[in-house]
Every structure is written in C-alpha cells, then in structure tokens.
Amino acid sequence: MTLLMTAGCGSELHSRDATLPEVVDYNFHVRPILSDRCYACHGPDANARQAGLRLDEEAGAKQERLASGGYAVVPGSLRKSRLHFRIHSDDPEVRMPPPESKLSLSGHEIALLSRWIEQGAEWKPHWSFLPAADLPVPAVQQSDWPNNGIDHFTLARLESEGLTPAPEGDPGTLLRRVTLDLTGLPSTLEELDAFLADTSAHAYEKVVDRLLDSPAYGEHMASMWLDIARFADTHGYQNDRDRNVWPWRDWVVEAYNENLPFDTFATWQLAGDLLPNATLNQRLATTFNRNHRQTNEGGSIEEEFRTEYVADRVNTVGAAFMGLTLECARCHDHKYDPITQANYYGLFSFFNNVDESGQTSHFTNAVPVPALDLPTPDDKGELDRLAREIESAERAVDNIAEMSRLGFTSWDQPLPPDTDPRPILTCEFERLNGPTLPCHDGKQGTAVFTPDVVPGYEGHAMAFDGESGFSFAGMGEFRRTHPFTVSLWINPGEETGAIIHRTQAALDAGSRGWELVLLDGRLVAQLAHMWPQNALRVQTIDTLPLGDWTHVAMTYDGSSRASGVRLYVNGLLADVETVRDGLNRHITYENMKVPLQIAYRFRDSGLRSGAVDELRLYDRKLYGFEVARLAGITEVTPDRDDLFQWYLAHEVTPWQRAQAVLQTLREKENTLFEGIPAIMVTEEMSSPRTAYILNRGQYDAKGEPVEPHTPEAILPFPDDAPRNRLGLARWLFHPEHPLTARVAVNRY
Question: What pLDDT, in 10s, does the model give residues 193-207?
C-alpha cells in the first residue's frame, strides 16, 4: 500500500509537546519505532516487502519515489513527507501501521517521528556500527565520591534516579568480591587474615596484584573464552568419541596468565599459522577454528559435514568478536542486520581453505587433520637428530647405488634366478566352507556377507555386490616403514566404473591403513594415517577396462613417500599421478588389529559389481618382472632400472647394509612418533578452495562463486590486508572497526 496525502493531518501540536526531547536521535528514538512497527512490511525481507518501500535504508526512505508520487521522508518538510500523513490518518485504509497488522503507534511515538522529520531526518547507522567515541565525563553533585571516570558515569545515573551510592564494603567483603571476580574462588581464611593485618595505604592494590599473578586467574578467565570458542573434550556427534584438545585449553589459560594482548590472543587463534615463521604456540592457537563438532558416522556425506564445519567457524567469529548472529545470513540476507548472504559466504571463504575431511576416524584415536605434533623438548631434539641421520643414510644409500652402476653394467644376468617370492597369503577362491574361505598356507577368510562362486580367471572366483566380502585376520597390518605387495585379478562390472565415490574398494584395510581402490574406473593406492593429510595416494591416469579380467598390483617400498608406491596393470607399470605425498605417522590401528578386507568396507560399500580372483599378499616389495609373472606374462623383459634395484638388494653387500641402517632409523622415527600427541589445528591449503553462495545454505546447491570479503556496512576491508584469515584478523582489529573492542569490553 502506497503512502497517500490525507486531509486534516497538518497539525503542529506535536512539536510543542513538552515531553519530547530537544533533539530527536535516530538511533535512540526513531530506529526502535521503525524496526518494531514498520520493518515487517517495509524492511529488509524482500519477500514480505509491501509497495516496494524500504524504511530500513536511508535511500529507500528518502530517494525511492513512491508509486503514488512523492517520497516517504522529505527532510525538514512534514507537508511533503508521506510518512507523516500516513501515521496521522484516521482512515483505516490509509493509516500506518494498518489495523490488521495489530500494530499501532502511540501519540508520543507519532510526535517523535514528526519532530525527527522537522529537524532534518538525520539518518545514522546502527549505533553499534559507529566507532566508539570518547564521551565527556558527566558532572555529578557528590563530586568527592568518584575515584575514576567510570565512577562518574555510575554516580550520574544513580543521581538521575534519585539514588545514593551504597557505602563501601568492609575489608572481608571487598576481599571476597575481588577474589571471586578475578579467580572464581572464595578467599581463604589465611588470605583474609593477611589482608586485615595489612594496614598500608595500598593493601587492596597488593591483593589485586597477587590475584592477577595467581594461576587461578588464567583458569577463571579462560573458562569464559572456552565457552565462546565451543571447547569440548568430545566430538559431539553419534557416540561422541573423545578428542584431545586440552593442549589448546592450557594455551588459553597460559595466554591469560601471561597477559597476552587481546588482539594478539585473537589473531593467533584465527590465523597463527599464517604469521611469518609461525611458532608452535601460534600454530597451536589455531585449534580455536577446529573446536566445532565433528562426525564419525560412516554414512555421512563428507562434503555436507565439511561445509557445516566451515559455517560453524563463521558463526563463531560473528558471535565471539562482533556480537552478531551471522548464521541468519547463511540461507538469506539477514532480516535485521546489514549482512547479505553474499557477505556470509565472503566470510565463509576465509575459513574454507582447511584441508580436512568431513569425517573423523571411528575406530581409532587418530587426530583429525590438519594436525600438529606436540613433542616434548627431548622428543623434538630426538626427532631432529633422527631426521638428520635419515637424510644422511639416504644419501649413503644413493651414493653406493651410483658407485655400483659400473658393476651392474658388467653383470650378465638377463633375469634374476630368484623370481618365485613366497606370499604370506594366497587365496584362489575355489570354494566356500560355510562362512569361511579356505586359502593356502592354512589361512581362512571369514565371510562378511556370503558372496557367490562364479567362473574366475583360473578356476573359480568370488562375485561381489558391495555388501559381500571376506576378512582375513592378522593380515595387512603393515607400518609405514614396512614394504609390501598385493596383487589380484579383478573383473569390475559396469556399475563399478560409473560410481564416483571412494567407497568402491577392491582391497581395503581401513582409512588408517592401506588400500587399493577403484575410483571412477581408475586404480587408486592409498596409505593413510588420517585422510586427507598424513597420507599417500597415487592413482592411474588411465581407467581400467570394464567387464574383463585385469591383473592389478600395488608395491610399496617402506619409504613413506608417494614415489615408493607403484601400480601395475596387467603386469605393466602404470602411469600414475600423485594426489597426496605426506605420510609421517604409522598406518596401523592403535587399539585393535583390523583384518585385511577384500571387496568390503565396514559401514560402506565395497566392490559394487564384479569378481575377484587369485589374491596374493607379500611382506616385501616385488619387482616389476615378478609382478609381470604374476600377471601371466611368461616372456619377461625386465626394466633396467627395476633390475638394477634387484641387483643392489641381492648382489651389493654395502648397499644392503646401508639400506638396513636406513630402515632401522626409519623404524626408530616411526616408533617415536607413535608416542607423541597431536592436536588438530588450522593450515591454509596451497591453492584456495573456491567458495560459493549456497542456495538455502545447502552444501550441494552452489550458486555464484564468491571471493573472501567482509560486510561493507561494518567496515571496508583494508586495501593492504591479505585476503586470508590473517587479513580478516587485521580487519577485526582495525582502529576504526566498530564492534570488536565494544563486544570484548561488554563481555568482560
């Protein structure tokens, strides 16, 4: 409904209302009226807006011409301001707010709005978006009572209400109050006796200094911040597994006890990892960003929960530093604050570059990555020493190899004689004995769900459908320093090649172990302590043929490097690409021996369709010519580099000794890492992940891409600040930022 000129509304009586303030302030007097009575139909919600009129923005009220002609507010002119006539009208078809809204304006409120227009209709941003300004200390009648500027404000308010200050508390009361205030604990009898016995002029100040120096001060102050930062000792979803983030809690306590400046305290938590030459404590502080709940439910969609984690960081920053409910803008423009949905995802993009998974480990205590190792000083010294020795041992191995090339050139062996390696597991899938699958060497696989026996590559094979599979106890539990090989024949169906999720496992020993996987038709080898970081992953560039038998194999040399993983398809070394190359912790489970699983993954899908035959597992790395023979290639022409490696391992004693020294050092490092705690922290990805406006906040409803930016209505982003979390921290603590200091002071 448009604003209309009505007769009989030109009364100026309101301007002579003695109860009106001399100067009508927009924030103090006008905004509350408009927000409460007008915004429902003329506010920020475009879907509910009537007549195209916005009264929550100055331009909408003063510059948007109404359909009926004229403007809602014309500064200084009641006659031209349609708002003035609408609120005065006695016609129910014209009057605002309309009677059916059940809202109304009092005579005093109508007079306030009219006087505001008469005085020029000055518009102001919300008071909280204005930088804090120095205020004059108010004059008081009892001038000898205040001890500081704050006392003047307190006394002025008391005197305006006709009240007088309460008398000063007795010494015992003062001690109890200040002790509770600074430590959260009551004072002891000994402390009371000492305070009463101190007759010096600064006895109280000495108590305050003592309390500020007490460890209890940091503990008490930290408790409030831990609530703000959603600290918890468990992950918060499903069975609520424990998580060890107490080192971050202790860092917060120590930060208060060391009186770390608040801007430093906050910057380290938001972006300590981005500071130049970041220290361990600066990186540890970034656990703040990871304190959100995390799921370990196997049926979870990882991207959905990863999106929830990022949104939680945005919401926490809004509440902790700006006192704003930013989460309202996740699905739509904010209904009350000047925060658009684009603003929300601009903030979202600052926190979107953490290389993390949407799931935590269910069966282990593996720390969600990115993670920071927290060695003791002694452990750190030992790790540094081992790193130097490993580097030296690797050079020694390489040097001996180079010196051995001449001997290899004269070594006249077209094919090594020892090419019949013995597997630790051989399974040909010939028959089922009830729930068990008898294999060679006395090993038995236990059926997870009974598969069908079908014609195989040789003899019989097992057909799998995503739920059927076998588990082999005591197999596949290799540490990251242990070389091994797995080979098998696989006949994947059409459905397997079409499914894109990482749930199509041909062979699997858990996310914290090693696995050979079919992913979008490509063969993927992974060794992981915790995905996506602390893991190795390589995958074939070409896809596997579907509907036909293919021999696949993975070999690993125990080096903890992606270059130590090789994939073979039909006996030939496959061209691969490296996806991950950062394994630095062991890959076995801590608290349980997880069996080797074929064509099945717990709470997940295994081989969706197809069959498996001729499984072999070796506790050493096989060479290419050995894999070729497993694939049925009888006329083998070994690769010269591959043959050279065999020559070193079997014919060159100095190389063997140097390799044994290297292996021992790697195992020592691995063992030391096992006892070092770690904590999840924040690390920036090398290539930023693109953020999008998400329709209704849904993780898979991507709209327009957004760049990192902050709400313009609060404060423009500094031109010289980087568009990352460190720049965001600088924006929050910019001298002109209206919210950060105000929110912190109000909270304290």
Answer: 999 999 999 999 999
